[in-house]
TrEMBL record, chain A:
This is Energy-coupling factor transporter transmembrane protein EcfT. It is found in: Membrane. It comes from Agromyces indicus. It comes from the Bacteria. Keywords: Membrane, Transmembrane, Transmembrane helix. The keyword DNA-binding does not apply. The chain crosses the membrane at residues 21-53, 65-83, 95-113. Pfam families: CbiQ.
Amino acid sequence: MIGVFHPGTSVVHRAPALVKLGLLAVIVTTVALLPSLPALGAASVVVVALFALARVPFRVAWRQVSPILWILAFAVPVQWIFAGWEAAATMGVRLVLAVALAAVYTLTTPVTATLDAMQVLLRPFRRWIDADRVGLALALAIRCVPLLADLVREVLDARKARGAEGSPTAFAVPVIVRALRTADHLGEALMARGVDD
Amino acid sequence: MSGIRFEDVSHDFGDERVVDHVTLELTERRVGIVGANGSGKSTLARMINGLVTPTEGRVEVDGLDVARHGREVRRRVGFVFTNADTQIVMPTVREDVAFTLRRHRLSPADAAARVERTLDRFGLADLADRPAHRLSGGQKQLLALAAVLVGEPSIVVADEPTTLLDARNARRIAEHFETLDEQLVVVSHQLELLESFDRVIVMEGGRVIADDEPRPALDAYRALIG
C-alpha cells in the first residue's frame, strides 16, 4: 500500500499529480458506491487496464496489493456471517480495488510531485494550514514504514537470540524506546537540513 | 570573518557538564575532533549548526552568532550524521537529494540540474530512482553526504560518519572527504581518517586537552586511551 515510485515514461507517469489525485478520489468514490458485483467486475477491468497502461510489472503490482489480502482473510468471513456472501464479496472487491488504485498512483508519482500538488491544493488555506508541513508529514509517513519494519525485525531477532520469543515485554519495550529515539534523530536531521527555519 | 569560533563555550545536560569552557578558532580546511565516548566532541560539533545551543559562551560561523542567526548558519553548514538511515527523509535517492533544495528557491530546472550533477559526483546516478532504504550502508552514507553537498554549504560537519561502515565503505567516504573544497570538521574514532587532516583537536571530560597537527595530537590521544 505504501508504494514506492516505479520509474517510467507512460502516459500515467506523465500525467500531473494533481490530475491523478483528483481522478483517484473520483474513481475510489465511484467504486465505493457501485452496488453490484458485475459493476465491480467491470471496474476491476478498468483498474487492470490502468496498471497495463502504466506498464507496471505484475510482480510490482502484486507486492502493493497483496498485504490487503491478510486483512480480507479475516474481514470477509466475518462479513459473510453477519451480512451474507454477496455483501462480503462486494466489500472485499471494493477494498482490493481501492488499494490497487492507490498503488497505481504511488507507483507512478514521485513523492516530490505529491508534495508540490499538496501545496497547490492547500494554497487557498495557507492562512491556517502550512502546506509544507502537511507534505513533509506525508513524506515522513511513507519513509518511516521501512525504517520501523527494520527496527521491528532487529528487535524480533534480538528477542529470539536471548530466548525470549514469547515475551511481549521483550518486544514492546525495545520497539517503543528505539522508535522514539529514531524519531528524535529524524527530528534532529530535519532541523540540520533547515526544515524548521 | 570566515571560519568557526567557539568563545568560552560550555554546555550542560541536566547536572552534567559535557562541554567545559572551550575556546577555539577553526579556520583550517580540514579539522578532526577525537575523544572517548562522553568527551563532549559530538556536542561541540552539533553547536556549529545550532543543533545544540551552548549553556554559556558563544559560537560563531563566518562571523554570525549561531544562536541568533540559526537559519543563515544552517544554510552555510551541512551536517552528516553517524546513522544515515535517520538522515534520509524521502523515499527515493533522487528525491532525498532534491529535498535539500526545496528551501533554496531555485527554478525547477536549476534544482534538477544541480541534483543530477550531485548524483553523478557521488556515483549515485544509476541508483537515483531506487528506494533509499534499500541501499547498502555505504551507499546510504554517500547519499547523506550528497544530500548535504547539493545545498552548496561552505562548511561540512560530520559526526562519526564512518563508524557504522565496513573498511571499504569507510575508505570511500574518506576519499570523498579528500576531494571536498568546503571546510570540513569531522568527529571520528577512526584515527587513520584524520591522519591527513590539517589540525586535530583531542577532547576529554568536555575540555580540549590537545590541539595540534595530526601526528602529535593523535599520539596524545593514543597515550590518553592507553
